[in-house]
Amino acid sequence: MDARAMRFEDEKRRIIESCFSKKDVDGSLLETYITHVRITEYSSYPTSPPPPQARGQNAEKPRVIIVAVRKSGRVRMHKSKENTNGTFSIGKTWNLDDLTTVESFTGPTATAQNREWAGDTGFTVTIGKPYFWNAQSDKEKKFFIASLIKIFGKYTGGRTPELTGFDQRELDQVLVEDEESRPGLGPMIKSKKSKGEIAGAFWKAASAANAFKPRPGGAGERLRLAATKSSEDGSDGITGVFQPPPRPKSSDAEKAQVAEPAPAAEAVPPLPEVKITVPNSSRPASLQPSIKEVKPAEIEAAKTDDAMRKDDPRKFVIAGNDARYLATLGVDPSIMNNKSSEFTKWLDFFGWVPGQQMRSRHMDELRIDVDRELNKAQAGGWLARFKEDDDRVDGIKRGIDTAIAECEELDNLLTLYSVELSTLSDDIAYIEAQGQGLQVQTANQKTLRKELESLLETTAITSNDLGALRGAPLENLNGLEDIERALVTLYKAMMKIDPTLGGDQSRKSNDGGIDNDQSLGLDNSDYGKMRIVQEKKQMYMQESSLFMRRLVEYMARQFQEATSETSRQLGEALSRKVDSHHHDAGRDLLWKYSPLILYARDVDLKNWDRLLQLYQDLNHPVYKREFQQIMTAWKKNARKMSSDETSELLFTSHAEKKEEGIATTARKLTVKRSQTLAKSLRSPLDGSRSNLKSSEGQSLPYETFGSVLDDILPLVEMEQNFIVDFFHATTLDQSDFPDAVAAFRPKDRQGGDLRRHRLMEPDRDLARRVTKAMEVIFVFMENELSGLVQWVLTVDNLQGVGVLAAMERKMAEISQTNQDFLNTLLQKLHSTLEGRFKKFVDEQIRAIEETKVKINKRKGVISFIRIFPNFSTAVENILNGVDKNLNIRGTVDREYDRILKSMFDSLKIIARENPAVAVNTGASADSEDKEALNFHILLIENANHFLEEVDARGLEVLEEWRANATAELDEHMQLYIGAVMRRPLGKLLEYLENIEAQLASGKPGTSIAAQPSNSRGVFNKVVGNYDAKEVRKGIETLRKRVEKHFGDADDPALSRNLVTKVLKECEKFYGDVELRISRVTADVYNGDTLFEWPRAEVKSGFSGLGK
């Protein structure tokens, strides 16, 4: 099976499962699929070929045309579309009786424009009105049209729709396809079969003719009479056998002689046997010939045996010798059986006599003699036999003439048989038509009976039968059951009269228990014009309206009682902890009335909406009091935070002062408090909630917000689920009112799991009605949550990150559910807060950019460098445990990058605003240039503080900025070391730099040593000045200076670590000086020097680092 056939079969299976699987009460299908074709129709050109510009994704509508037959025999054509889940839905239906014309656009009668626009795949079907459809291929178009013609002809008794616009080739293909599908002799005659198969088919048909009695005067009767007459006359020319006389025996002389014919026993010599046989594979067993055919080869063999028995006895000896000779030659002796004597005679004839004569002959001579004799026999043998056996030749001639005559008679019989078969075909068609008519009549009678029974059942309901609707008590379980039974009766009667009352047409049209032909109801059929139907409809609507008025009044009291019970449960609760079971008490009073609400939705949508409005208005104050109590309780439990605790977390709280007047001790204490607070900020978003009764009784503001959401959002979701279930405000539940009544008795009815997330409602109008009810009940919720957000931000703006994370976690949980109200509310709050957070970061960046630092006096770590580690620690502790896929993670990372870029740009701006620093930054800078030195100190302190205090936590953005800080630290550390080393090692460094510069320029070491200022003696003098005492003194001075520069930072631990880090770089510099001296000694002075660098003093001078 090719791909197209597999696709067609898959579509057929899904179409049957979706549209033709409904069964009647007796188990038979209500409608049976016949065929289908995929087409495309165009919204702007539904009746004619569309121009190219009118085609496109928005204009094209893919559809499937289906032909099916109802159980009643009515053939219909459906237009359906394929749904996203692979099922099919029927959108329009026509009766095939209305088909009048099928038009193609390939013929000469079509206009050139239509021929171009329609192509080979477009066609128009007129069924009531014209519809232009475009098939997927030319082959599918012709196959569907041919099938449609065949089905239409079968259904209408041979009629054919008008076919226009076809070119001759396409029309022939369509009609041929139609003919090939018809039953009868056509396929048997047209198909290419062997003669044996055709003869076998005739034999079977002839044998089957005896199995029934044909109609009087018909072809079958005439055939029977002809067969009887033929049997009386003897042989019928087909199965008769003529026995010829026995053939005369010929002698066994060396040369063949023809024996004289025996005297004829009869006046007319008998004819040779002439037979017409039929292949056994197709001929009936009862007609097989009983006389065994004797083949000429068998007769000749028998004659040869007789002759050999009369032969000379010596033949046995000769045969024995031949056998021995053959065995000697390795030839199977059996090949000479019964032929040894004849073989010996022929050898003698050709001169192959034993002795000298045989030895003188050659094998080629024997071959030539044998060929010559064979040629003679072929040339004259047959003519001689014909002349000598003239009696037999005459017999054969007479037999041939008889056979020809029999064949001519057989041809006449076959012609007659073909004509009679055509007559039989008409008889069969007549019988089939009668049977189909009886079938249709029976089906119509059954349909009529069903309709009459339905009409009788519908109109037999009296006002007394519905008395429970007016008098039975709704508050009593027995009364409620009586009311529901009466309502079921009323509901079914009203649906039979007018199914559109239910409002859900898709469900009712696909209801397997209702005939689709009756889906429009009695009101829209001929029965609807009957006076009794109109009177009953009016009476039923009146009874329904009276009951609905009673139901609305009663349910208003029940809703009030339910809300009172819920309020009582909330007031009597011993624990302040939120418990959704308090609301179950009120809902348990209502569940038993759920089927009545479904009746209201299906029959009286206006009163159903009124019931929902009563419910929502009564529940609004209950939830408002409860939610306010929940928020108040959590806010009381929140931790009180002072401005001092949060000041060191924000850049806006620490703008640098122009004058240093703040006490260092106070600033250090504030730093400690802020670090403690940053580390104490923890995330409540790991699923655990702080309890109001906990021993600590403290929670941070953003934790309080998250706890409030955890408490109230489940209550909101459960309330919406209750509205959907109790008021049946969904199209996902396909049960109707009788099903709901039959499911449970009133005392056993209870709700499902209201905590379970529900799927999104496909009917958006119905979803908006539910959302409207939620907005009425929780109209206060947006303001309350906005106020809570403002309370959190008032305490600490930074904790808005935690609020955003809490919202996003809840939004992720309900994004794919039916909670449209909560989704909209949270998205609105989130959008507002996200904007405020961005504005908050903008303020922090502005504070960073406005920070001014005067570097004529060293001030240590700049405020924004000192604040950022606490800032990031606080934020990351808030986000600890938050799903990294939430948007808050990306939002915070982007804001980190903005803040850090502003911080490091501000440091560069400080460098540009100080001319002294900009000039004296080289390795030969003045060691006493305090401004330049302070600049390096400032950058080293800030970069080191950033690296020591900022924990990247695996975040890419923080890792990148730590790498930038490391590069800044390394650069300015080298500049600082180069400056401070001038004081203890200035002259030595100048001497080494001079020689190294000449060596780098390519000057030979001998030339440098020959210079007076760089002679060996000068070198020894310069280096000799740095003996152990001088080096030890210089290192001590250097240590004090480094400790003065870096030992007075805000954090003593960080100061000690930085001093140690700088002194290690100094020790490394001393080691590099020793290596430089060694290289100069080797390259310039041939390794001959009187001075040795005091390595031990250097090591001793820098010992104890890090302690």
TrEMBL record:
Biased composition (Low complexity): 258-268
CC per GO annotation: exocyst; plasma membrane
One Pfam family this sequence matches: Sec3_CC
InterPro entries, sorted: Sec3-PIP2_bind, Sec3_C, Sec3_CC
Region feature Disordered, mapped onto this chain: 227-291, 501-522
GO MF annotation list: phosphatidylinositol-4,5-bisphosphate binding
GO biological process: exocytosis; Golgi to plasma membrane transport
Domain of life: Eukaryota
Comp. bias (Polar residues): 278-289
Sorted UniProt keywords: Coiled coil, Exocytosis, Transport
Residue ranges constituting the Exocyst complex component Sec3 PIP2-binding N-terminal domain according to the UniProt record: 58-155
Family of this protein: Belongs to the SEC3 family.
Name of the protein: Exocyst complex component Sec3 PIP2-binding N-terminal domain-containing protein
